[in-house]
Model the fold of this input.
Amino acid sequence: MRSRDDQTERLAADFTRAQTEPRSDYYLAIANCDDLLIGFVRIGFGRDRSGELGYAVRFADWGRGYASEAAALMIQFGLDTLRLHRIQAACGPDNYASQRLLARLRFVPEGRIRDHVFTNDAWRDSLLYSVLEHEWRSEVVRARN
Ligand SMILES: CC(C)(COP(=O)(O)OP(=O)(O)OC[C@H]1O[C@@H](n2cnc3c(N)ncnc32)[C@H](O)[C@@H]1OP(=O)(O)O)[C@@H](O)C(=O)NCCC(=O)NCCS
Done:
């Protein structure tokens, strides 16, 4: 868990980045019905109209559909407004909640990235997923019919 100071510093950096042009990423805040900030979804820009999706919801609110709803909105924004062609996401092999979220969002598994991140004093693999513009749009049409 991050300290309050560390989190304050990170938030300040997020706000600074949000005011620079061209932008390197976009955040969507997730609030509950009491207007309390409980999570976020982020899209960071990659090369050639690609984006990387990231997200977190506070533990007490897991399993209530917050990430599914917010991530779907962010993907729609990424494709329609930011004109992305590909959106990818990476998650830990033991992160079943994230894998289920990506499956629900119709992301396609692409494989395992070895020693992708260094966290908690160790190199860790990630599973890579992506959704392409035409795949997302055909899913949206299918869901409507
Ligand atoms: C991943 C995360 C954002 C999901 O948020 P959420 O608001 O609980 O997600 P939703 O309620 O929209 O549910 C999405 C899917 O995750 C599943 N899920 C939620 N919590 C779960 C848990 N603890 N264990 C297993 N699956 C879980 C839901 O059942 C749902 O799957 P389904 O569609 O097959 O039913 C949340 O678990 C989290 O913040 N984790 C820590 C941060 C993190 O891992 N971020 C991603 C880094 S790659």
In short: The chain has one domain: 4-144. Residues 4-18 form the longest helix (15 residues). The chain has a mean pLDDT of 95.
